[in-house]
Design a protein that fits this description.
7 helices, mainly alpha
Length: 184
């Protein structure tokens, strides 16, 4: 029984060290996002706008465009551009980042703190919804969401074309296994 005591003590100390690092990481995350949270009213007054990536604007203009996409490599490159703008697709397996529960808790606490700060800075604006409408911020927000939706639709379309042409991922969904000879 005595040999186990040092191992338990070492495990508790290591967990404590990890929790301290996680707390510091969460504090750094709050510090990095504090500027955006405090200046959130600038979005409501349309003085600061979220930029829409060009690939999403192109997808919004013509989500089914196949010009210059006659090879699996070009389809895969276009899907990669969309992945960069949108993040991973739903068919991609979740990445196991190897983070500890304390790190995940610190991230959640940091996000909650930033959301609270953002909420506090925007709640003091009387008639906020009217200000967003009159300033054009509401319309820009809808345009951003439309571009994101168009990008997702285009990515799905391209992966379907990739499957039809027997392309390997990323020109097709990650679960798709080409049969026979691959196209290039």
């Amino acid at each position: 029984m005595k040999p186990i005591l040092p191992l338990v003590l070492a495990a508790v100390l290591l967990a404590g060290c990890n929790a301290g690092r996680s707390a510091m990481s969460g504090a750094e995350q709050v510090g990095e996002g504090l500027g955006d949270a405090v200046t959130a009213p600038l979005d409501d007054f349309n003085l600061r706008r979220q930029l829409i990536p060009t690939v999403l604007l192109q997808a919004e203009a013509n989500p089914y465009d196949l010009r210059n996409l006659n090879q699996c490599t070009t389809i895969g490159a276009e899907v990669a551009r969309l992945d960069e703008a949108l993040g991973p697709d739903t068919d991609e397996p979740r990445r196991q980042d190897g983070s500890y529960r304390s790190e995940q808790a610190a991230d959640a606490a940091a996000r909650a703190a930033l959301d609270a700060i953002r909420g506090t800075t925007t709640d003091f604006i009387p008639g906020r919804s009217w200000i967003r409408r009159l300033s054009g911020a509401d319309q820009h927000s809808r345009h951003v969401q439309s571009a994101i939706q168009s990008g997702r639709m285009r990515r799905a379309f391209l992966k379907g074309i990739g499957m039809q042409r027997n392309c390997a991922p990323p020109a097709a969904p990650s679960w798709f296994r080409p049969t026979g000879r691959l196209q290039r």
